[in-house]
Amino acid sequence: MPRMGGMSRPDIRRWQPEPVAEHDPDLAALLARVARSDHQRVRRCLDGLTELQRESIKLAYYGGYTYPQVAQLLGVALGTVKTRIRDGLIRMRDCMEVTW
Fold first, then answer.
1. Mean of per-residue pLDDT scores for the chain
2. For the purposes of burial, counting CB atoms within 10 Å of the CB of 83, is it exposed (0-12), middle (13-18) or buried (19 or more)?
3. Looking at the predicted structure, is the pLDDT value of residue 37 above 90?
């Protein structure tokens, strides 16, 4: 069996990285602030969507529904849901100033 960095294949599957934040309270505090900030940005950007876009995105991404299920729940065509979600995600990207 080929060795990777001194570890056999079974060893790699068992290896788990240690959570860095547990060893560095300053880093843990920083990560918590970043998470809160990101949550606030997402919330603000979601609030900037139309109600139809927001509802479709919440069902698909927070509710765990598939696009066909979202269409059925909302009583609209699948293409309509896809368009609402695509347009909403574009607006979210622009609002959050994400660059590719």
1. 81
2. middle
3. no
Residue 74 DSSP one-character state: H
In a domain, 86, yes or no: yes
Measured CA distances, 55 to 23, 38, 41, 45, 46 (Å): 40, 20, 18, 13, 10
Which CATH number is 86's domain given?
A: 1.10.10.10
Question: What is the number of structural domains in the chain?
Answer: 1
Give the count of beta carbons closer than 10 Å to the beta carbon of residue 69. Answer: 15
Strand partners, 7: 4
What's 64's DSSP letter? Answer: -
Structural domain for 83, as ranges = 51-100
Mean pLDDT across 27-52? 85
Section 2-28 average pLDDT: 59
CA distance 10 to 27: 31
